[in-house]
Amino acid sequence: xxxxxxxxxxxxxxxxxxxxxxxxxxxxxxxxxxxxxxxxxxxxxxxxxxxxxxxxxxxxxxxxxxxxxxxxxxxxxxxxxxxxxxxxxxxxxxxxxxxxxxxxxxxxxxxxxxxxxxxxxxxxxxxxxxxxxxxxxxxxxxxxxxxxxxxxxxxxxxxxxxxxxxxxxxxxxxxxxxxxxxxxxxxxxxxxxxxxxxxxxxxxxxxxxxxxxxxxxxxxxxxxxxxxxxxxxxxxxxxxxxxxxxxxxxxxxxxxxxxxxxxxxxxxxxxxxxxxxxxxxxxxxxxxxxxxxxxxxxxxxxxxxxxxxxxxxxxxxxxxxxxxxxxxxxxxxxxxxxxxxxxxxxxxxxxxxxxxxxxxxxxxxxxxxxxxxxxxxxxxxxxxxxxxxxxxxxxxxxxxxxxxxxxxxxxxxxxxxxxxxxxxxxxxxxxxxxxxxxxxxxxxxxxxxxxxxxxxxxxxxxxxxxxxxxxxxxxxxxxxxxxxxxxxxxxxxxxxxxxxxxxxxxxxxxxxxxxxxxxxxxxxxxxxxxxxxxxxxxxxxxxxxxxxxxxxxxxxxx
Length: 558
What we know:
Distance between the termini: 43 Å
Structural class: alpha/beta
CATH class of one domain: Mainly Beta
């Protein structure tokens, strides 16, 4: 479901060449998330790439859960991943798999490697294994157990599966090259023992779990994947990927191709850090609208089309880069500008009483739901002598360039009359609580004669407006790269990432808006109805402001 003609990139050029050379008759890709957290926008890039390529080449894209770490995984994450992929507009059909589907076959391949002299059971513990592994500048040392015979290794491996040994007592390691300059080839661990873990798919059947680097390439091969697309951090793992599929009896040898991951300003993309944000209560949940998760972006009001468009725009390259948050925000603005109906909402109400309401004043005013799209129709806005305008639209001592309401000054109520402020009623603290205004009765839908009124303000009927809560979400962090330089990323949190406004008033049509409905609140920004909403007690989340005001906000904060 691409929203534009896909731009070519080095991956598509490789696929085109493979097909032209007859290396493959069809293209098969996969999206292989680990179910240990919710998907974030970085995963969206991979989803759009893998499913998009399969669609464009008439191929198939599998959804496969790489579930080899059950102590970090659960069904909630599996379900959320399915929901997010579907929300983005993709369907895997019958092609959903789990790496755990292959546990028996993977174990058999482990036996095969032992029989070929390519794997052995090692008794070194984790700390000793690291010590023997060497460094980037020094070669590793052979494990004392590297020379075990085939029969002993087979016996120990079977007993590992049977649960005879405690966690960490033994591992199965590949026998490759302890002097390799690529540290991933220094006899990597293929299996480790994990007791007392209930796997979300296999229950307590296994206490012996394969590692990701062993499981992933073999799963690709078993599924007939032609092009295994992954991010650049796996480039050094490619020789091990190839070694695995070349040394066991799998039906094909997929090609691993790496591309740059998505790094986005003003957020973190590490699942470990995102998990920390949730578990420490820094955010409310995985779908908190400040999170870069797809669930969070959905709750924030982002559309699947805007996410797909964003992924197309950033492209696919081999070079790491940091994408500006403004690009993501501008993409959703474009989408919602064209699709979101307009509505009136007053976030900081200030009462206006019209003292000379004309006898022929309408009880409601018909307004367009979108200024450019006739097919969106119109709606009726209740009108009366008592209204609310936004407190920011009035100033007793206006700053230079202020074009809204001032004592003795005029503004137009959007789609209605021109009004003049005649009197300011103040509360005990000296702040305005009510404005007494008069209307020019000849200005309903017309320009006033003999003068020019520059200011236009939005409004809501005081009698028929609906009380609402509005959550103003902003960027979660104050700096483009949280934690850069080795600091604690939590020190860079934006204290104003969420401001909750109560006492807001919205037009009556919004009182029954369904969760997920998106609107442009005129002059305020784009908003979505939150799942917390109830009839006549709506809750709105700000998706994005009408313009990019972040730079100005940062200047003020500084």
